[in-house]
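Table S7 (text form). Paired inputs.
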Amino acid sequence: MCAHTAVLDADGVCRLCRKQTALIRSPHARTPYSEVARSGQQLFIADLFSSRHRGAAMTAPAPSRPLPAPPPAYRQLLLFTAARTLSRRGGFRGLAERADPHLAAWVDRFTIERAARHGWSRDLTWRVRTGVTIILGFLTAPGAAVTADDLAVLTEANLPHAHVTDVLEAAGLLADDDRVPTLTAWAASRITHLPAAMAGEVWAWYAVMRDGHATMPRRRPRSETTTRLHLRWALPALTQWAAQGKTSLREITPADVRAVLPAAGAARTQMGQGLRSLFRVLKAHRRVFTNPASKIKTAHPDPTIPMPLRVDHVRHALTSTDPAQALLCALIAFHALSAHQLQHLQLTHLHGARLDVDGRTITLADPVRDRLASYLEHRRRHWPDTANPHLFVHFRSANTTTHVGHRWINLHLGPHLTCRSLRNDRLLHEALATEGDAKRLGDLFGISTRTAHRYASTISHPDLQRPQPGHSHP
């Protein structure tokens, strides 16, 4: 029809002529192929022709998650209650075979899915499967959920407790955790000796600190560290008042607060902060009539003076054969990154020679780039399949998507360095080099004006005016 060389079908026309005929045909009459030669050809991109049924619904993709759990094949009756324990002497085979095979096969799909997503090794996948089947063997009734006490026994056999918990939670087989939080147990052990009324008031403060308050007076929940410190600082005063016969915090007056406060120093500041936190919350929630600690000045603790580190300690960490230690030290020693920033650094924050941190773009120094390249190669070689988006990972976090902790950073820096001391050293070095230019410190490192002035005012300290052997600054 079109007189060009092409492969013809059974009707003796090429694919282009057939598509052109379908394009110009009438809905009520058959259009002959000869009409194509008079109307001309319209080229088209393959596989983009419209469907005849434009309004037809597309086939839904197959669900990625398994169907609901099958009903159990049997019910294991409970003869008597006994504490569960695991021993590696007899192996895991007999324990794992107790699980319902149908339920175990269904949950195994969640394990495989999670292993593929996070790049688990064959050994870790086998250990998670073993732990899951052992826990499923503990179920004694149809539809029973796994409790936290059941999962706790996995630590005795060195099985991955956290990964097994995640798999069972994804499968919907994990019961609500009814264990007492560690902070609550610690607070209970400290408050039990107080009078009932006073202990109830402290528990009311603790609930607001831990969970916050959504209605007036609104308050955001505080961290566990803040709650623990405030209670620890206020406990000596509460103990003294209880020993004096006070049964409620409503009986406390400003004179009582002044009597228990230390004369001076950090102890006075800390106790004052703890008591103000306690009475401020109770006053807002009308558990006490007044705040006796509101107008009592406890001063501020004496600020510490940042001092330089020894050059050999910093040089040893920078030239370490451990790529993680060398990169951690370089990022802090050159760019003064904080521990929080190091924890949350992700691979997507790297753009060649630049690093995005908290809205700032940092141009990496050449020594940092060299150590970054070495660490990335080390990371790729040891954990090629990890799905963790963070820059720094270790053998545990590589199997998850969580970041490393403060302790891991300080341990990798070595026995003579911490993240805070090394960052102080870098900021102090810049303050000395710029003769106390606080504005430059703030622009270069993204620190607040108050922090910049702290380092700028330190350069006149007597210990920094005379040479000290082995230190990085005069």
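Next pair, protein 2 of 2.
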Amino acid sequence: RKPGFLHKNDQYTFRFDNGQLFRGIGENVGWEARSFENQKFTYDYLLPTLAKNGANFFRTWMCYWNLPLEWQKVSSTKRYVNSPDYFNPGAIRRMDELVHLTDSLGLYFMLTLDWHGHLMEQGGWRNSPYNQANGGPARTPTEFFTLPAAQQKYKDKLRYVVARWGYSTNIAAWEFFNEVDNAVFTQQDSLLIPHAAVTLWHAEMSRYLKDLDPYQHLVTTSISHRDILGMNSIPYLDFNQKHLYKHTEKIPAIYPDYLQAFGKPYVVGEFGFRWEDANPTYAADFNYDYRRGLWYGLFSPTPILPMTWWWELFDDQKMTPYFRAVRTISDQMLAAGRGEFKPFAVRAGVVQCFGMRCGRTYFVYLLNDSPAKATVPVSFGAAGSKLTAQTFTPGTNRYQPLGQFGAKNDLLTLPALTLAPRQEVVLVVEAAPAGPKKNLAGNLNAHSNN
């Protein structure tokens, strides 16, 4: 029996209707191949590849070249054609197929209903169904947000989306916009659309969608890197998001400030070594960021691990099987802690180190981010005289026993480990279960009856 729809639970997990906990592990599959791209990259190829390699989540867009629901004029696609219909029939058919495919694969996805390029005057706005020049209600991108007739047209889309696909438990979240700040600002950070217009629109549309959707899917939106004033505080957005490029090392530090300020889950919806292109000249650096970004997320308070962009490059680089390693440890964390995640400090010399206790099991991620080999002792706070330690090597997905150890003065010190440059390892240390507590009252009663 399927677990149902996903809902908010806490900073680390979402929760299904049946109470089962979920952490999303996957990547962006922003769209199927455009007309000028390798036609191999379709949902039918990419999604089964993700599923068989341990991923359980992805993110995809509606835009004028992919699932173009509202677009009478399409572009850069061999899959869809122009249509005079209010909703594009080709988009409806393909979305039906996508929902059925994800159901068969056990994959969950974030459906991005719109993207920033739609509202760029030299981009998607020229062919937008909201543009007065194409028979729409709005004269400008700002009026897309502020004009009642444009808002009503958008609500028509929400009603259709929920009515046709809202039954799907595999749609994890509705995302209003990809990187809406890139429509609000110019590249030089001059303001094009008032913050208040965007925030009020999201407040109204998220309220409307929550009232409309009988299954209460998660609702979100995303920015690139510039916050929109007031948007993180909208009560009907279930989690907030941003995207991060060229600074994967900053991922662990992103979450605490947003969690403390706004009290809702936070997600890095895109990340990568570069945003400009997927130039294979940088493949080694792309692959390194792909790996460490996932682990940074796993050891951080987020229900969806950071999702890389450039899905075609990583398929070419044969990186998809790497998801299996992260999924293995994630499943072990969930099983060990039953939803308990307690970060702890680790000392490991010059290598990066992150610790998470789930129930009686301690997990430590070590990464040598330096250009030289490093041999480091590892120590952290732990209790118990019988602590069984093993290493887990991502990529090979093999566990290797280290032995049994005892903590001294609540400090566990493990034998030194040697890591090559950019090498990583996960330590899994399990404390023996506590023995049965003596029934002091029972013992006293037995004594008094003698």
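The domain at 342-431 is CATH 2.60.40.1180 (Immunoglobulin-like).
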